[in-house]
Amino acid sequence: MTGTMICTYVYLRRVKPKLILSGSSIGMIQRVSFRGDAPLYGRKSLTLEVTPLEAQALTQWFPTKTPEEVMQIYGIFGGTPAYLEHVDESLSAVENAHRVILSKSGALYDEPEFLLMQEVRNPGAYMDIMGAISAGRQRISEISDYTKIPRENLPKYIASLITMRLVAKEVTQPRGIVSYTLADPFLHFWFRFVWTNRSLLEAGLERAVLMQVERELDAHLGRVFERVALAYVTRLVREGKIKLNPNYVGHWVDRDTEIDIVATAKQEEIAYAFEVKWSALKLKEAQSVLDKLEHKALGIRAKHKVYGLIAKSVEHIERLKEEGYQVHTLKEIFS
To answer: What sequence ranges are listed for the domain DUF234 (predicted)?
Structure first.
């Protein structure tokens, strides 16, 4: 490799050669180019981070699948192209999960451990932290109680996981509560169904785990769908289809009140509030959700409030839109 680079430099030196450094190991790239003691520090002219695909992009990857089937694939494999390449389009999402993730010979059976071993020497504590987050322990105190790692030691581990793009930090409004989530649906799926069932899978009892996946898949997809819906609302704001200049778009947590998505614009004194449901809603069910949302949104400080619902499907959706509600479905998100 060194010889090749030197020869290339000699051949190109009259046309101001550029070295393109590419790789999936963020830690390695930082060690050789971003840190103060790195050999290439201060010499970069451009940094491009290739992020995972968003959910709606998978409709082009899997054109024969329905929006719900695409959502299932995204909820299990996430948006990383290298993982999606393992999906056999002739099989269901669960069948693919069985073949690729739950089987000991599957290509992604030990993927998170492999990722961490490339970046850190002792991945055990990092795995425990990610397992805690997947189990719903998303604040520092909760993660510490779950993992038994002292609170004062957690920030350095979490900072590394954020740098590796394995964990994301969220600051919810209006109280600025800090929480952490796994950065990709694949990680959520893996820690929920592989990490917690490792002894069964190692014993060759993957059928029992597969039955658990079938029972709990909708609950898992509900969490993923909230993130998909948030990305969709953000896109609507960016494209001007929701007209406001936001100071915040995200989850809303105020004491015992939680709203899935709130977009606020302080200067305009406008707020949009959405509930997200991974289910097919009848008209009465949708109206009930919206009534409860209006009550929960009383604490949002804004002169004008718009209420909305994002669900797998909604009966008589046009009627709700005529009443002034923002209502969106899975089909719209993936169109």
So the answer is: 190-288
